[in-house]
Design a protein that fits this description.
There is one protein chain. By secondary structure, this protein is α+β, with helices and mostly antiparallel strands. It has a single domain, classed as Phage tail protein-like (STM4215-like, 2-Layer Sandwich), CATH 3.30.2000.10. Helices cover 19% and strands 40% of the residues. It has 3 helices and 5 strands. It has a 5-stranded mixed beta sheet with strand order 1-2-3-5-4. It starts with a helix and ends with a strand. It comes from Desulfonauticus submarinus. This is Mu-like prophage protein gp37. It holds the Pfam family Phage_Mu_Gp37.
Length: 146
Amino acid sequence: MVDFSVLEEKIIQSLSELKNEGIRTCESYSGQLEGKIPEVTKRFPAVYVMCDGAKYTQRNQLTESEVSFLILCADRSLRAKSKEALAGVSSLVRRVRELLHGKRILGDPFTPLFVQEEKVLVFEPELGVAVFSARYFSKAMFRIGG
C-alpha cells in the first residue's frame, strides 16, 4: 500500500537545504553508520532517512495507515564549540525538526509529519561520534481496492 522508498525520497528532498548549511550527507540509510570509525565519520555531519515501518487498521471500506520514519543525525560532537550554523548533532536535530515537524511533506493523502521521539543512539566523544535518532510519523486513509 505504501511505497517506503518514495516517501523517504520526499523527506530527503525536504531536507536538501541542509546541504547549503554544511551537511555533507543527506540520503536514505542503508548501513552507512556501520564499519570503521574513520570511514564512517568522513560523511559527517550527516542525516540519514529510513522508514521504520507501517501499521494498518481496517475501518469499514477504508484502511488507515500510520507510517513512521527514523531520521538519524550524525556528527563528530554533541555540541561543537564552532560558530558554524550546524555545529554538533544537537543543532542538527533541532534544524531537522524545524524542516519536518508539522509540515505536509508526503503529499495527499498523508497528514503532516510529527516528531514522536528524539534520543541518543551513540555518544562516544573520545571517538568523535554522536548519533541521535528522531522518529516521525504520518497517517493516511486509503480506500480498499483503490
